[in-house]
Amino acid sequence: MSRSALLVGAAALGAAAACWGCATGRKLPMTTLAPKSDLAEWIYHLFIQVTLWDALILVIVVTAFILAVFFFSTRVGEAAAPSSAASDLGLEVAWTVGPALILLMISIPTVRTIFRSQPRVAPAGSLEIRVTAHQWWWEFNYQDSGLETADELHIPTGRPIRLQLLSNDVIHSFWVPQLGGKRDVVPGQMNHLTFEAFVPGTYLGQCAEFCGLSHANMRFRVMVDTPDQFAAWERSEQAAPATASQNVSAAVLAGARIFANSPCTTCHRIDGVSKGYIGPDLSHFGTRTTLAAGVLSNTPANVAKWITDPEAIKPGAQMPRLGLAGEQLSDLVAYLESLK
């Protein structure tokens, strides 16, 4: 084999190694090369098949190029008589039938994956969750239990998950690379995403369709739990959140009064306190790991920063400034963090 062909082969191996590094490295958690669900595996295997066919085409083209440049570009001795043939039937058949067969070999698994990934009927025993996209956060409503949460989706392993995707405003796109492909979320139309996760863990998600000023800040997380962990989470979410009647600190009691008498009650719902329906449900806010649609970790300092000036963190945020500071702000933060 020529030196050029060896260089091409080395480059291909280097690219494969780089891809494997992306799949196993910790620096790129949003990768499609480390599937953790049946749907993600189907897409991954399709990618590998198409890549192998592409690699075959690359090898053929590079080999033909090398032969043309280094072996057939010059002649030794007298020039041969010119050919009178207008065409080469065998060559024409080869370059017509060959690409057609390759396209067929790519099309068959592609069509099969499309049909497998979009079942018309929910699988038996599936957990149905309605996902509503807002500018710029995600609402998750569990259809069988009535639980509602925001920006953090808990699901169990070993059970089919059927997501009902709706938009409250503009077109969004639901995407968790390690669990499945992108699925558009369109106003006035319900789309579905069905998969079964098999590896517990936390997987990052992102809106993948430009939807406005804070599109890049419309993140979420999917917590894949074991069945026992998911059952415990459900029981925790169904329990009443911390209230002023419980044995809590004076700061929490003061914060509860501040919340109950603030504009927060118009937008945010807390069981037994307010019936807001515009923003995320805060009934168990203290159990969440993030806030502001995954932009910030859920810590008292970040909660205070978010309440003080939401638009500085998420441009275009529809949450107004409350004008709280000092002890009032600290008390409200203490109350929100106590909601577990």
Explain the overall architecture:
This protein has about 350 residues and is of the alpha+beta class. It has 3 domains: about 5-70 and about 90-115, no CATH class; about 125-230, Immunoglobulin-like; about 250-335, Immunoglobulin-like. It is about 40% helix and about 20% strand. The chain is built from 9 helices and 14 strands. The protein has helices at about 5-25, 40-70, 90-115, 225-240, 250-260, 265, 300-310, 310-315, 325-335, and strands at about 125-135, 135-140, 150, 150-155, 160-165, 170-175, 180-185, 190-195, 200-205, 220-225, 270, 275, 290, 295. It has a 5-stranded mixed β-sheet. Strands 4-10-9-6-7 form a 5-stranded mixed β-sheet. A two-stranded antiparallel sheet has the order 11-12. The chain is elongated and about 105 Å long. Residues about 1-25 have low confidence and may be disordered.
Q: Provide the CATH topology of the largest domain.
A: Immunoglobulin-like
SS content category: alpha+beta
Strand order of the largest sheet: 3-2-1-5-8
Q: Give the percentage of residues in beta strands.
A: 15-25%
Q: Calculate the mean pLDDT score and round it.
A: 85
Helix content: 40-55%
CATH architecture of the largest domain: Sandwich
Main beta-sheet strand count, sense and barrel state: 5 strands, mixed
Q: What is the element string, with H for helices and E for strands?
A: HHHEEEEEEEEEEHHHEEEEHHH
Tally of discrete structural domains: 3
Oligomer: single chain
CATH class of the largest domain: Mainly Beta
DSSP strand count:
14
Distance between the termini: 67 Å
Question: Can you identify the CATH superfamily of the largest domain?
Answer: Cupredoxins -  blue copper proteins
What is the CA-based Rg, rounded? 28 Å
Shape: elongated
